[in-house]
Amino acid sequence: MKRLAILVLALLLLSFLNGCGSKQPAGDEIPAIAVEVVSAGRTDMNKIYDASGQIKASAEATIAPKVAGRVTQVNVKLGDRVGKGQTLFQIDAKEARSQLAQLQADLGISQVSYDTAVQALKDAQSNYDRTNILYESGAVSKTDLEQATTKLVNAQLSLEQSRQQIDKLQVTISTAQDNLNDYTVAAPIDGFIGAIKVETGEMVSSQTDAAVIVNIDTVKVEASVPESVVNAVQTGSNVPVTIDSLNKSVAGTVTAIAPKADSTTMGYPVEITIANPTGEIKPGMTVKIDLFTGTLPNVVAVPVDAVIEKDGQHIVYVVEDDKAREVYVEIGVSNDSQTEITEGLEEGQIVVVQGNRLLSDGQQVKVVTGQEGGSQ
Asked: Distance between CA 118 and CA 159 in Å, rounded?
């Protein structure tokens, strides 16, 4: 009997202790989600067309020698900065130099012949003048005068031949000098050595692409835009250019717009030029371009984070009576911060911008802060 009493007392004590414990929330109760909201407002929105492209050098030159021969010296290496006219490499020019020297020697001989012809003409002229005077006075015969005349004409012809020979040699020497200069291969533009494909001792010819020079003091990128956009793009307009590999954005300028569409893409090429004083922007880098194409006035807009894609459609969550309501919307243009709402949302409605990806339709919410709406 005593043992039974102790057992009953223990059960009563256990029941009492369980009853004093804290109550658990009902299984169906879902705690409120903390959210940030914004009031849908009206604003003027810039229309931006996003395009992508690759950086290109502002100028690029592939250099091939004009003459054939063996390379005797290479003066540059990959990555060197060179100026226009700077020697890149030298080709053996012994034969061309010898030919030029021979021609110059021939010119010296011809010059002596010319000087002799000049003196001969002076002598013939004096002899003719003297013979003519004597003939008029009857001191010499007509035959003597005719002989003096013949000598004068022959001297004039000889001088003219000497002059023509000198002119011909001077042209030939000029050509030979140009030919000799071709054995020194120089940079046609300012820039950097993008490739050097010759070595000392190697044979080259006009078929050899020996070097490539790129000028990247400014660079350019070509984007393709559709016909619906091309007339809204203006030359001279500023363009933000994002270079992911450098983790930076730079300013570009629209410098050219094609008057006709590309036959392959059917887009209109637009060229953007970017200043590159440090040379860090390299040809081949991929960039994103934001082309301004106009302004939409007084449109309903919300922050881009407020819009969620769901099953191929777009939704936002609006707050009504401390609950989230799922609303399907139609969107228009977007920029980095704002999305235009063309249907499904009215000005002044409270829209969730943070915490919305944790919500479901009808869920209880707790607004912790708000943002300004309707501004770019």
From this structure: 6
The angle, 0 to 180 degrees and rounded to 10, between the axes of the packed helices 142-181 and 94-136 is: 160
Buried b (16+ CB within 10 A) or exposed e, 97-123: eebbeebeeebeebeebbeebeebbee
What DSSP element (H or E) covers 284? Answer: none
User: Which pLDDT score is estimated for 15?
Assistant: 47
Nearest to 102 by CA among 179, 169, 182, 162: 169
| pLDDT, tens digit (0-9, with 9 covering 90-100), for 224-262 | 999 988 998 999 999 999 999 999 999 999 999 999 999
Q: Is 194 helix (H, G, I), strand (E, B) or coil?
A: strand
CA distances from 254 to 17, 180, 237, 272, 277 (A): 80, 44, 6, 4, 18
Q: What is the DSSP letter of 11?
A: H
> How many C-beta atoms lie closer than 10 Å to residue 149's C-beta?
15
Is the four-CA dihedral 36, 41, 44, 50 of positive or negative sign? positive
168-185 tens-digit pLDDT? 999 999 999 999 999 999
CA angle, 358 then 360 then 362, to 5°: 130
267: DSSP letter: P
Tokens 């005068």, located at residue: 145
Q: Which two tokens stand for residue 163?
A: 């002059």
User: What's the rounded Cα separation, in Å, for the pair 261 and 176?
Assistant: 48
Alpha carbon distance 38, 305 (integer Å):
11
> Amino acid identity of 94?
K
Reading the block at residue 221, the tokens are 């990128």
- The amino acid occupying position 297 is P
Task: Calculate the CA 248 to chain-centre distance.
Answer: 16
Structure tokens at 116: 């002799």
- How many other CB atoms are found less than 10 A from the CB of residue 289? 22
Mean per-residue pLDDT over the chain, rounded: 88
Contact 294, 278 (CB under 8 A): no
